[in-house]
Specification:
By secondary structure, this protein is α+β, with helices and mostly antiparallel strands. It has 3 domains: about 1-165, no CATH class; about 165-315, no CATH class; about 315-369, no CATH class. The protein has 11 helices and 17 strands. It has helices spanning about 1-15, 90-105, 140-145, 165-180, 205-220, 235-245, 250-255, 260-265, 270-285, 290-295, 305-315, and strands spanning about 20-25, 35-40, 50, 55-60, 60-65, 75-80, 120-125, 130-140, 150-160, 185, 190, 320-325, 330-335, 340, 345-350, 350-355, 360-365. The strands form 5 sheets. The protein has a 7-stranded mixed sheet with strand order 1-2-5-6-7-9-8. Strands 12-17-14 form a 3-stranded antiparallel sheet, with no helix packed on it. Helix 7 packs across helix 9. It is elongated, with a radius of gyration of 21 Å.
Length: about 375
C-alpha cells in the first residue's frame, strides 16, 4: 500500500524509482498504526528542484503517510528531500514530522493545510545560513510533471552539515512545522495563527508550535510511547531540561496568576510569552474539540482576544469537569469560569476563579456565580 501511495503522490514531486525501506509505526494514541514512513534508497531519477532556488537540486527523499481516520488509507503528508545520500537526516526528519502530524490530529483535530494538498515538503540544503525557514510558494515542477496544483507548503533547513545537536534539530523542525500547519491561508485559520507582533516574529505559530510540540514529545518519551528514534535521537534526559526551561515557567505564571491581560496586548516578546503560557495552560485541561473551538472563535487572531474566545467556548455548557495532571494535586491555580461557579473557589477576577486542585485532580464548575 505504501509503495502505491508513493507512486501516486511523489511521482509528481520528483520521480521515485528503485529500492526503498518502509516503516510502519505504532501510534501513541491508539492500537492502530496511523503513520508510515518510506525512505528511497536510490537516487531520484529526476532531481527535485527547490522552488525558492532553482539552482538547488535534490536527489534523495523520504516520505511520510498518515491516516486521518481509523481504517482509512494512509495519505501522503510529508516529503523530505536531501542533497546527500547518507548522513542527511531525511528519514529522521520525516519520522519526526509524522509524529508532530499525529499531535495536530489528536490534540487539535486538524490536518496539514489543504490548499497545498495536505503535504508539507522539506528541503535539507547544503546552502544558506544555518537555520530554518517556512514558506508558502508555487512549484512549477509540479505542473511540468502533469500536476494540476502548484501550491506548496515548504520548509527549508539550511547548512545541513551544521544540523547536529538533537534537541536543537527537534526544536527547529517543530518551529517551522508550527508555521507550516498553524497558519492562515486564504483567510482560513488552520490552527493557532495569532499575529500582530513586532518581535520576535510577526506570527506566533512558530514559537507556539515548538513549545507545544517539544512538551508533547517529552511527555511521550517519559511515558514510553515514543523512543529517541522518533525525536531525531533526542532523549528524555535531553528534552526534559529544555521543556522545564522554556515551557514550564510560562505555563506556571498563568496557572498561578491567571492570564496577564496587560502583557497579552503587547506586541513584543513579553506579549508572545504571555500568549504561549496561556495556550500551554489551556492545553492541559481542554479537550481537543474545545481547543479547536477556542482558536476558531478567536476571529481577530490576536493574543488579547484569546481569553474571550475561551469563555465563548465554555459558556454553552451546563457543567464542566476539568482533569489536571496527577502531580498538580494540591496546587492553587486560576481557571476560566465565566458564568460558572468553581467548586471550592473563594476568589474570582476577570471571569477566572482561584481553586485548589483536589485529590482526584478534577476541578468541577457549575452554572451560577
Amino acid at each position: 500500500m505504501v509503495a502505491s501511495l508513493l507512486a501516486l503522490g511523489v511521482m509528481a514531486l520528483g520521480s521515485a524509482q528503485g529500492s526503498s525501506r518502509n516503516l510502519d509505526l505504532p501510534s501513541p494514541f491508539g492500537p492502530e498504526s496511523k503513520v508510515q514512513i518510506m525512505e528511497n534508497l536510490d537516487r531520484l531519477e529526476i532531481p527535485k528542484i527547490a522552488p525558492k532556488n532553482p539552482s538547488w537540486a535534490y536527489e534523495w527523499s523520504a516520505s511520510g503517510f498518515g491516516r486521518s481516520r481509523p481504517g482509512g488509507i494512509a495519505g501522503l503528508r510529508t516529503v523530505v528531500y536531501s542533497q546527500k545520500p547518507r548522513g542527511d537526516h531525511r528519514l529522521s526528519v520525516a519520522r519526526l514530522l509524522m509524529r508532530l502530524w499525529e499531535f495536530n490530529m489528536n490534540r487539535f483535530q486538524t490536518d496539514n493545510p489543504s490548499p497545498c494538498d495536505g503535504i508539507v515538503t522539506v528541503y535539507l540544503s547544503f546552502g544558506g545560513t544555518a537555520g530554518g525557514e517556512q514558506m508558502f510558494a508555487r512549484d512549477p515542477q509540479l505542473l511540468q510533471r502533469g500536476g494540476t496544483n502548484d501550491k506548496v507548503n515548504t520548509i527549508y533547513i539550511y547548512d545541513i552539515d551544521t544540523f547536529k545537536d538533537p534537541v536543537q534539530m527537534v526544536r527547529e523542525i517543530a518551529h517551522e512545522y508550527g508555521h507550516a500547519t498553524h497558519a492562515t491561508i486564504g483567510g482560513r485559520q488552520y490552527l493557532t495563527d495569532i499575529g500582530g507582533f513586532k518581535e520576535p516574529e510577526q506570527w506566533a505559530a512558530g514559537y507556539l508550535g515548538e513549545r507545544l510540540f517539544m512538551r508533547w514529545l517529552r511527555d511521550q518519551l517519559r511515558d514510553g510511547k515514543l523512543t529517541p528514534e522518533d525525536t531525531m535521537g533526542a532523549t528524555l534526559e535531553q528534552l526534559d531540561p529544555w521543556v522545564k526551561a522554556y515551557c514550564d515557567p510560562l505555563e506556571d505564571a498563568v496557572a498561578k496568576n491567571g492570564p496577564d491581560f496587560a502583557a497579552l496586548r503587547r506586541d513584543d516578546a513579553k506579549g508572545m510569552d504571555a500568549l504561549i503560557g496561556l495556550v500551554l495552560f489551556m492545553e492541559r485541561f481542554l479537550s481537543a474539540p474545545e481547543l479547536r473551538q477556542t482558536f476558531y472563535l478567536n476571529e481577530q487572531r490576536r493574543a488579547f482576544t484569546l481569553p474571550a474566545a475561551l469563555l465563548k467556548t465554555i459558556e454553552p455548557k451546563d457543567s464542566i469537569a476539568w482533569t489536571f495532571p496527577a502531580d498538580w494535586k494540591g496546587r492553587t491555580i486560576w481557571v476560566p469560569a465565566g458564568p460558572f461557579k468553581a467548586a471550592g473557589s473563594t476568589e474570582t477576577k476577570n471571569d477566572w476563579a482561584k481553586v485548589t486542585v483536589p485529590e482526584d485532580g478534577i476541578v468541577q464548575l457549575t452554572k451560577g456565580k
